[in-house]
RNA sequence: GCGAGAGUGGCGGAAUUGGCAGACGCGCUGGAUUUAGGAUCCAGUGGGGCGACCCGUGGGGGUUCAAGUCCCCCCUCUCGCACCA
């Protein structure tokens, strides 16, 4: 009584047999297809939300394999990082041990899901034979002047006890632990990603298949802005203030200057202006609120008059210089010209200020007069109150004013970016040591390449100290070394690298994972990269994806690779929610796949995950609906199992016997439905949108039709004639098209149908285009846009014939009686609309 | 505030170029089979009305023979950016 697909045994069987299915021969036949999922952090357990990523990737790899591609689908572990360390501290075991245990567990989860990879290429970023090459990459950057050490104000997370890159700070908090970030002055290592700001921005145009929002986020982050630096001399002439502005056309309306309170010049100016005591208090006040409430400070516009004046180079007028909380030190020059009439922030500042600062309008909206402003006018218009530039269009004036200031040596065109250099040092244990040595005599010296890897010591107290130094500083065995240059006593750099360095190049390593001579094989990498399809979460829109693009561009410029973008196509799947919120351990709303697989089997879990909704969108998990997928799986199984007698012949005879012109109506209907389904499934998945959900629903429709077809078919019951052949053909196509989504079931039926080779060596069917459309269809007949009747008609009728049929329709007569027919619109294949009044 | 996306039955979601709104699935209702079933199969299932019909895709206008789809205004939600000069 095998009414149910016996998944318990069969899924195990196929998981074992598939051992080498995804083993990639890099020189094998077929066009290459590098299908890559973002490698996970081995946190121990994957829930069904994570599963979506891997199931989409696996189904894609399988269907591409069935298209004849040579598939490279590797997997590895982003295995350095804080959680391992924290867990190790908590459980008193070594991070390496904790990591290994988790990897074992997660590998089993992939296996249970039927998610396949070429495990012979497995890598783990925490292993010396991997991080040796991460260190090598660091040295390449260092040699090229793109890795440098600098004492700077950096983001310090007091809870994680390490510094963070700007990208890892979200709203002033640590993206990992959500604690407020402090500012510390520390000597740190940086990668000069800013040198690539323009290339990263420009080459976005090559990333046509990337989601628009990811590109928008990256370009926001890079924050390129073209403008002018204008020199405002101080009144007494011994110093200049440089203002960055993108609106130099408003310079005649600049009636004051604002300097960031943290600006190094601030203290000098208040001294000079005779306001030292009060001014110092103000600077301290701003610093305090910045520390406590960064959010709030953003909306107050407190200022302090320094007592100094500058000269507006356009108007030659004396204008006051203020310190204020609303000017950012980090952007531009930290000095801004205040134009209250045309900048809302400056307008508000003037309103809040007790001093009487003039508001001078210098641009008027075309077609209206200048009048009293209730807010800043930021639009374009005609220049007024601007001397020789009056009457010009402001955009035009912008150029002319720039030229005129440039001639006088008072202005320069500049480009500013919000992107800052990538801070890569971390004061934590579980990461790749930075391969540098500090020697009293020779200074900072790189570790020679042949001395790599700089091994992470095992016998070290890795509890973070929180004093701004790495735990490695407490390991004398690690710390003390000799200088590679002079041979004298020296000390190793004790920081480790940001784990995003590890993940910025791992996709190169998969091509030659065991190579002991080099980081990656240039020939293989040039042949297999860029990645054809990269799949992962949107949360890496900036971090990982921007860093990887940077590193590849660097390697390209060094001549080490021949491609300058790592990922040709990017797909970011939506997250799975439960009770409306993202599924996560911390939210306590995870669904463990283990229990579901035990109850329904992997094919069901896979099918449901793919059916849940469009993959790029978030989707709410519903345990109830999983049963629907289970039912479908069993419906397909029964379709085979109840009629297994049909498949007793050897498979060689079961194909190519169909002759559509000789089919009866019901047979032809089914035949056409099969063609339509083949077309739709392939289209929906392979057009780049990965719409498995609609592909699956098409397969459900076809399955329903097959049931209807065989139900009342005497020939089929008697096992004679075309109906039997057609049934075989129908089921075979369902099995092949469903195989990428629910591989165990399909592989099993395929085998029982008598095939010795795996179903994944089978090519996808081609739709018989002649039969994509039905030969008859239901013509909708409307009167004045409302549906009044329907009539089944032949496909290839002329407009005139269709019109006649519609007008002759009995039910229509009632509606057009006594009316004048103004117009009849015929849409062949769909409807007729009769306009009658 | 700016930018992007979204709003369709009780629920998840379908709907080339404007052309039968609600495919497919969940849930629900009825029936068949069954000792029984939370299994399976069949039928029904947007709302209103006995009915012919009427109303329905966040709200309001518009274009059109025809609008979920195009245009204008507004509301709500999600995401990103946010004193970036």
Describe this structure in words.
With 837 residues, the chain is an alpha+beta fold. Among the domains are: 225-416, Valyl/Leucyl/Isoleucyl-tRNA synthetase, editing domain (Isoleucyl-tRNA Synthetase, domain 2), CATH 3.90.740.10; 643-771, Isoleucyl-tRNA Synthetase, Domain 1; 776-836, Ubiquitin-like (UB roll) (Roll). Helices cover 36% and strands 19% of the residues. It contains 27 helices and 34 strands. Strands 2-1-26-27 form a four-stranded parallel beta sheet, with helices on one face. A four-stranded antiparallel beta sheet has the order 6-5-9-19. A hairpin with a 4-residue loop joins β5 (147-157) and β6 (162-164). α18 (593-600) packs across α19. The longest helix is centred in the C-terminal third of the chain and has 22 residues, at 665-686. The protein binds one RNA strand of 85 nucleotides through α7, β11, β15, α11 and β30.
SSE layout and pairings?
Layout: H1 7-17, E1 32-37, H2 48-65, E2 70-72, E3 76-77, H3 82-91, H4 95-113, E4 123-124, H5 128-143, E5 147-157, E6 162-164, E7 169-170, E8 173-174, E9 182-191, H6 197-202, H7 212-222, E10 225-233, E11 240-245, E12 256-260, H8 265-272, H9 276-292, H10 294-297, E13 303-311, E14 318-324, E15 335-338, H11 344-352, E16 363-364, E17 382-383, H12 394-407, E18 411-416, E19 422-423, E20 425-426, E21 436-439, E22 443-446, H13 476-479, E23 480-482, E24 489-492, E25 496-497, H14 499-502, H15 506-509, H16 522-528, E26 533-537, H17 543-557, E27 570-573, E28 576-578, E29 581-582, H18 593-600, H19 602-611, E30 619-620, H20 623-641, H21 665-686, H22 692-711, H23 714-718, H24 722-738, H25 743-752, E31 776-783, E32 786-794, H26 799-808, H27 810-816, E33 821-827, E34 831-836
Parallel strand pairs: 1-2, 1-26, 3-4, 12-14, 26-27, 28-30, 31-34
Antiparallel strand pairs: 5-6, 5-9, 7-8, 9-19, 10-11, 10-18, 12-15, 13-14, 16-17, 20-25, 21-22, 21-24, 23-24, 28-29, 31-32, 33-34
The protein binds one RNA strand of 85 nucleotides through helix 7, strand 11, strand 15, helix 11 and strand 30.
């Amino acid at each position: 009584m095998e009414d149910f697909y016996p998944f318990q045994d069969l899924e195990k069987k196929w998981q074992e047999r598939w051992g080498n299915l995804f083993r990639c021969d890099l020189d094998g036949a077929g066009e290459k297809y590098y299908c890559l999922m973002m490698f996970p952090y081995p946190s121990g357990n994957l829930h069904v939300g994570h599963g979506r990523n891997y199931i989409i990737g696996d189904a894609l790899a399988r269907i591409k394999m069935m298209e004849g591609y040579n598939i490279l689908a590797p997997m590895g572990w982003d295995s350095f990082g804080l959680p391992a360390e924290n867990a190790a501290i908590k459980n008193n075991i070594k991070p390496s041990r904790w990591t290994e245990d988790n990897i074992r567990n997660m590998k089993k989860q992939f296996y249970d899901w039927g998610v396949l990879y070429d495990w012979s290429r497995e890598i783990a970023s925490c292993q010396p034979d991997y991080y040796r090459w991460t260190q090598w990459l660091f040295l390449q950057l260092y040699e090229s002047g793109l890795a440098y050490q600098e004492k700077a104000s950096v983001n310090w997370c007091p809870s994680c006890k390490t510094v963070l890159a700007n990208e890892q700070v979200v709203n002033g908090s640590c993206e990992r632990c959500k604690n407020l970030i402090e500012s510390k002055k520390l000597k740190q290592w940086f990668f000069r990603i800013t040198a690539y700001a323009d290339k990263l921005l420009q080459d976005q145009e090559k990333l046509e298949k990337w989601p628009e929002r990811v590109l928008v986020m990256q370009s926001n982050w890079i924050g390129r802005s073209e403008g002018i630096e204008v020199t405002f001399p101080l009144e007494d002439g011994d110093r200049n203030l440089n203002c960055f502005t993108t609106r130099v056309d408003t310079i005649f309306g600049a009636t004051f200057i604002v300097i960031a309170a943290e600006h190094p010049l601030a203290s000098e100016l208040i001294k000079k202006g005779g306001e030292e005591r009060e001014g110092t208090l103000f600077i301290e006040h701003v610093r305090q609120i910045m520390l406590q409430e960064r959010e709030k400070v953003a909306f107050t516009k407190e200022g302090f008059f320094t007592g100094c004046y500058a000269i507006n180079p356009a108007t030659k007028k004396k204008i006051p210089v203020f310190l204020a909380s609303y000017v950012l030190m980090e952007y531009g020059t930290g000095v801004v010209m205040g134009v209250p009439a045309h900048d809302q922030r400056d307008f508000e500042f003037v309103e809040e200020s007790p001093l009487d600062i003039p508001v001078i309008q210098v641009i008027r909206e075309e077609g209206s007069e200048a009048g009293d402003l209730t807010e800043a006018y930021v639009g374009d218009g005609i220049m007024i109150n601007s001397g020789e530039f009056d009457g010009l269009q402001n955009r035009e004036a912008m150029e002319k004013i720039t030229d005129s200031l440039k001639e006088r040596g008072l202005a320069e065109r500049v480009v500013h970016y919000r992107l800052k250099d990538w801070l890569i040092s971390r004061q934590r244990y579980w990461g790749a040591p930075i391969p540098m040595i500090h020697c009293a005599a020779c200074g900072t010296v790189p570790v020679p390449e042949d001395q790599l890897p700089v091994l992470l010591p095992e016998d070290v107290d890795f509890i973070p100290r929180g004093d701004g130094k790495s735990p490695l500083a407490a390991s004398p065995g690690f710390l003390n070394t000799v200088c590679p240059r002079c041979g004298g006593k020296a000390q190793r750099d004790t920081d480790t690298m940001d784990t995003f360095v590890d993940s910025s190049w791992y996709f190169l390593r998969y091509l030659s994972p065991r190579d002991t001579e080099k980081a990656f094989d240039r020939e293989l990498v040039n042949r297999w990269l860029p990645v054809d399809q990269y799949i992962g979460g949107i949360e890496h829109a900036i971090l990982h994806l921007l860093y990887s693009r940077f590193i590849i561009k660097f390697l390209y410029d060094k001549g080490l690779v021949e491609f300058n973008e790592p990922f040709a196509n990017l797909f970011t799947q939506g997250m799975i929610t439960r009770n409306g919120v993202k599924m996560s351990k911390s939210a306590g709303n995870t669904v463990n796949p283990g229990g579901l697989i035990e109850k329904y089997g992997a094919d069901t879990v896979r099918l449901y995950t793919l059916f849940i909704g469009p993959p790029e969108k978030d989707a709410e998990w519903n345990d109830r609906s999983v049963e629907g997928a289970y039912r479908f799986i069993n419906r397909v199984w029964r379709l085979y199992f109840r009629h297994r007698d049909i498949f007793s012949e050897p498979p060689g005879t079961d194909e190519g016997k169909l002759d559509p012109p000789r089919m009866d109506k019901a047979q032809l209907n089914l035949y056409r439905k099969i063609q339509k389904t083949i077309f739709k499934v392939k289209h929906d998945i392979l057009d780049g949108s990965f719409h498995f959900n609609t592909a699956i629903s098409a397969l459900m429709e076809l399955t329903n039709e097959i049931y209807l077809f065989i139900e009342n078919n005497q020939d089929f019951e008697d096992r004679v004639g075309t109906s039997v052949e057609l049934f075989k053909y129908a089921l075979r196509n369902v099995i092949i098209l469903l195989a990428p989504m629910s591989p165990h079931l399909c592989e099993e039926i395929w085998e029982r149908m008598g095939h010795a080779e795996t179903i994944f060596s089978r090519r996808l069917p081609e739709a018989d285009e002649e039969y994509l459309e039905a030969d008859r269809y239901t013509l909708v007949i409307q009167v004045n846009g409302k549906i009044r009747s329907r009539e089944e008609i032949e496909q290839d009728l002329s407009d005139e014939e269709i019109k006649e049929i519609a007008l002759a329709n009995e039910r229509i007569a009632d509606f057009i009686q006594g009316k004048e027919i103004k117009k009849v619109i015929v849409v062949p294949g769909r409807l007729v609309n009769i306009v009658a009044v």
